[in-house]
Amino acid sequence: MTQQWRLDRTYRSTAGAVRWTTFGEDGAPPLVLLHGTPFSSYIWRDVARALAGRFQVYVWDMPGYGDSEMATGQDVSLAKQAEVLTELFAHWGLDAREPTVAAHDFGGYVALRAHLVHGLRYRRLALLDAVVLTGWGSPTYRLLGSHPDVFGRLPAGLHRALVTEYIGSGSHPGLHPAALERIVAPWCTEEGQAAFYRQIEQNGLDLTDDLEGRLGELTVPTLVGWGAEDTWLPVAWAHKLAAAVPGARLRLFEGAGHLVQEDAPAELAAVLAAFAGADASGPA
């Protein structure tokens, strides 16, 4: 859990520098992993390494998150993140390879928008504790989004305490202290504190409404995975999302909270390996 995590490559996107890396052999079936908020690709570290034996795994920090660029005036909206994903597909040469995509939290919306609006083609799609349906947002997220100017002026120590408590609540059994610190740290520099509230301010709670009515258009085999103990997006959302996507398969992870990658990494890796590796003509 405390292994080093390093994104050793940079792509200059239209929203700023994006840090990324890849695991596995070139030419293996591609698998792209998307994080959500307020996280980074670091939460995928164990799953990515476990999957690298069978797939070429791509991970990246979205602009404004983790090790990627954080800048005043930066566009970190969900719509922009979908544009950046489209840019990355071209940069990675995935346009014609149709990777499996696994997307967590608002990464779910980003993946869906890139597919439905920008035309990215996926072989399979896994939506994990995904921000897609109208009405999302934990009580804390809603509070922070209502007063970003106020919270943005918190002293550094209070800001760190708030972010630490908030991120920690995403795990059901609790995060390892070293992992929690690693997830929190990017938000606790001067640039990071501003970026934390910037992304909340730009990602209003109604900005995902445009895709909910289009879920019935999905034809790509889809897995909806959810932590059964998710308190940010309770499991009822999983059932609703799975019902809205034609042919979607639902998989619950018992004992896991919103951060299913942290709470059940081995189980999640096994489920994704089976899903991504399944024959395209077979069941999802």
Task: Provide structural commentary.
This protein has an 8-stranded mixed beta sheet with strand order 1-2-4-3-5-6-7-8, sandwiched between helices. It has helices at 45-51, 78-92, 107-116, 139-146, 148-151, 156-168, 177-184, 190-202, 209-212, 236-244, 260-263, 265-277, and strands at residues 9-13, 16-23, 30-34, 56-60, 100-104, 124-128, 222-227, 249-253. The longest helix has 15 residues, at 78-92. With 284 residues, the chain is α/β, with parallel strands linked by helices. Residues 280-284 have low confidence and may be disordered. The chain has 12 helices and 8 strands. A hairpin with a 2-residue loop joins strand 1 (9-13) and strand 2. 38% of the residues lie in helices and 15% in strands.
Strand content range = 15-25%
> Helical amount among residues, as a percent range?
25-40%
How far is it from the N-terminal to the C-terminal residue, by CA? 30 Å
Number of separate helices:
12
Largest sheet: 8 strands, mixed
The rounded Rg comes to 17 Å
Number of strands: 8
Structural class: alpha/beta
The helix-strand sequence is: EEEHEHEHEHHHHHHEHEHH
Unreliable runs, pLDDT <50, ≥5 residues?
280-284
Question: Secondary-structure map with pairings?
Answer:
Elements: E1 9-13, E2 16-23, E3 30-34, H1 45-51, E4 56-60, H2 78-92, E5 100-104, H3 107-116, E6 124-128, H4 139-146, H5 148-151, H6 156-168, H7 177-184, H8 190-202, H9 209-212, E7 222-227, H10 236-244, E8 249-253, H11 260-263, H12 265-277
Parallel strand pairs: 3-4, 3-5, 5-6, 6-7, 7-8
Antiparallel strand pairs: 1-2, 2-4
